[in-house]
Every structure is written in structure tokens, then in C-alpha cells.
Amino acid sequence: MALRISAAVERWPVAGQFIIARGAKTYVDVLVVAVSDGAHFGLGESTAIYYNGETAESCLAEVEAVLPQLEPMNADAAREAVQILLPPGAARNALDCALWDLAAKAAGVPLWRYAGLSAAPVPLVTAFTISLGEPAVMEADAARAAARGFGLLKLKLTGEGDIARVAAVRSGAPHARLIVDANESWGDLDIAAEAAALAALGVEMIEQPVAAGQDALLAEVRAPLPLLADESCHSAADVARLAPYYDGVNIKLDKAGGLTEALKIADAAQERGLKVMVGCMLCTSLAVGPAFLVAQRADWVDLDGPALLAEDRPDHFGFTGGTIAPPARFL
């Protein structure tokens, strides 16, 4: 049966500010795609990969450009076609996830079963992001997050003064597990020495220490804790190229272009013995749903996007005691 597809941009306010090395955000614009076959209805959400030059509006235009080719198809055929029509990125993610949602509903099964999981997804420990700031600010933010029950904290770093920031967070949340995101900012640093100093403070993993495309800088680095590729890894085809330099990959559906490619990345990483992290951009629970399925296979989970917003969608994922749990409808 032919499809009806529509797309729109929505704005969601952030709780306070979300600050990383590239700047601060007080809101996030997300792209929402709705797909119907006349009897069932599917939804998908994505957030533009701004460091790749995407905007919510450019992603909307990408989706609208391919609708004439997709609408005559059924959901499964359209999902196959969109892998070819659009590159990895947020536009394809919103379409891909909406088509997965529609196909699962048309089949009368939950999405996890339609996607091939062997068991219903279970609640997971998720990281909570501590925005980049002065050490004292990050210490206070970490203390508040720990008081809310988050036992895994992800710190945004910038390549300057990072050890002081991590030490402050350790003081504010002495019992928390810590992971850090260097956001491509350590290219001019002694990465092994920086990692050793952070390991002494209890950090257990570092994301993307060097700029995407400069991954070979890690060839001779012998860090005492795992290094994971984030901005460098967009598709399953990237995994073989990155394996000599990293210990794992961070899978985000917005980068990958949807659940379809994210599952392939997880397979490719695990085939090579690499660790897997599943993350997200700032987003609502609508975007987290498909990522939560991939996260069932992850070593680290960072799906706190909705917890960083001032509000979320009705019937949303729950964040209690440092875990993320799906709403009943998801099961």
C-alpha cells in the first residue's frame, strides 16, 4: 500500500544550558517524520549533526526531496530505498526510524521483536552529561547529578585544563563512574599522559580525543583506558578503518542514518572485538526509542538526551536511580 509521509521541525527547550567545546545550547530543534499506510502510523525523530553542517531545516529539505520516490512503496521497501537515496545523517535517521515503527505496527509486534532482538529490552544504566564549564561549576553539577541517582557521569572536555575539571567532578561525585568526551580537542596533547592522569582519577573511557580524519595520530598511543571513536564513526564501513586506532565506537542513530545502519555498526564492531557505546544528541524520548534497542548490546549507554530537556513527550522513557527504562507501550 502506498505511504503518506510528512515531516516538520519542532523546538524543545533545554533545562538550563548544554555546553560543550563547540558552544552552548538553550534549545534543540528536532526533525519529526510521520509515515502512514492508511491503517497504521509510524514516527521517527532526529537531531541535526551540526558539526557536519546539518541543520534541522536542511534535514527537512532532504526528506521532502525524496518523498515522491518513497511514497509509492510499502514500509519495508521504502526503508531499503532510503539507505540509497540519502547519506548517513539525521534526515535518513528520522525516515528510517519512522518506517521501522510503521512496519512493526503493521506486523502487530513491538519494535524490539521486529528488529530481531531475542528478548524484550530491559532498563539500562545511562550516563548523565556534565556540561563543559569551570571546575567549580562542573563539580557542583556533578554533585547534583549524583544526588539525583546518576552513578555514571559523562564529562565534556575541551583540551585545556581538563585534568582540573575531572578532579573537581571527582570531588563533587566521589563514588560516580566517570567517562569523558574530548570532542576532538586533544590533537596537540600527549594523549597517553593525559589518559594516565585521568585514569588515576577513576575515568574509565575517553571519547574521540583527536579530530575526525586525524585518527592515525593514535597509532602509537598506548593509553591505559579505552579510546572510542565518535565523530569519526558514521557507518559500518568505518569500523574496519578505525579498528587499528580505537578500542571501540560510539553509535548514534543521527550519525548512522537510522536503526538500520546502527545495527550494522554494532555487528561490525563486535565482530572485531571492539567495545560499543550507544549515545544520542539532545532529543526527546521519541528519538531514544530505537537507540535503546541497540543499547541493549552496549558496554556504555549515554541516552540522557531527554533528561537534559526542560520537558519531554507524554509516555516518555523514565530516568530513575541512574537508569533509563522504556514506557509500557514500548514492550
From TrEMBL:
<dbReference type="InterPro" id="IPR013341">
    <property type="entry name" value="Mandelate_racemase_N_dom"/>
</dbReference>
<keyword id="KW-0413">Isomerase</keyword>
<keyword id="KW-0479">Metal-binding</keyword>
<feature type="binding site">
    <location>
        <position position="181"/>
    </location>
    <ligand>
        <name>Mg(2+)</name>
    </ligand>
</feature>
<dbReference type="Pfam" id="PF02746">
    <property type="entry name" value="MR_MLE_N"/>
</dbReference>
<feature type="domain" description="Mandelate racemase/muconate lactonizing enzyme C-terminal">
    <location>
        <begin position="135"/>
        <end position="228"/>
    </location>
</feature>
<feature type="binding site">
    <location>
        <position position="230"/>
    </location>
    <ligand>
        <name>Mg(2+)</name>
    </ligand>
</feature>
<dbReference type="GO" id="GO:0046872">
    <property type="term" value="F:metal ion binding"/>
</dbReference>
<feature type="active site" description="Proton acceptor; specific for (R)-substrate epimerization">
    <location>
        <position position="156"/>
    </location>
</feature>
<comment type="similarity">
    <text>Belongs to the mandelate racemase/muconate lactonizing enzyme family.</text>
</comment>
<dbReference type="InterPro" id="IPR013342">
    <property type="entry name" value="Mandelate_racemase_C"/>
</dbReference>
<dbReference type="InterPro" id="IPR036849">
    <property type="entry name" value="Enolase-like_C_sf"/>
</dbReference>
<dbReference type="InterPro" id="IPR034593">
    <property type="entry name" value="DgoD-like"/>
</dbReference>
<dbReference type="InterPro" id="IPR034603">
    <property type="entry name" value="Dipeptide_epimerase"/>
</dbReference>
<protein>
    <recommendedName>
        <fullName>Dipeptide epimerase</fullName>
        <ecNumber>5.1.1.-</ecNumber>
    </recommendedName>
</protein>
<feature type="active site" description="Proton acceptor; specific for (S)-substrate epimerization">
    <location>
        <position position="252"/>
    </location>
</feature>
<dbReference type="GO" id="GO:0016855">
    <property type="term" value="F:racemase and epimerase activity, acting on amino acids and derivatives"/>
</dbReference>
<dbReference type="InterPro" id="IPR029065">
    <property type="entry name" value="Enolase_C-like"/>
</dbReference>
<dbReference type="InterPro" id="IPR029017">
    <property type="entry name" value="Enolase-like_N"/>
</dbReference>
<keyword id="KW-0460">Magnesium</keyword>
<dbReference type="Pfam" id="PF13378">
    <property type="entry name" value="MR_MLE_C"/>
</dbReference>
<feature type="binding site">
    <location>
        <position position="207"/>
    </location>
    <ligand>
        <name>Mg(2+)</name>
    </ligand>
</feature>
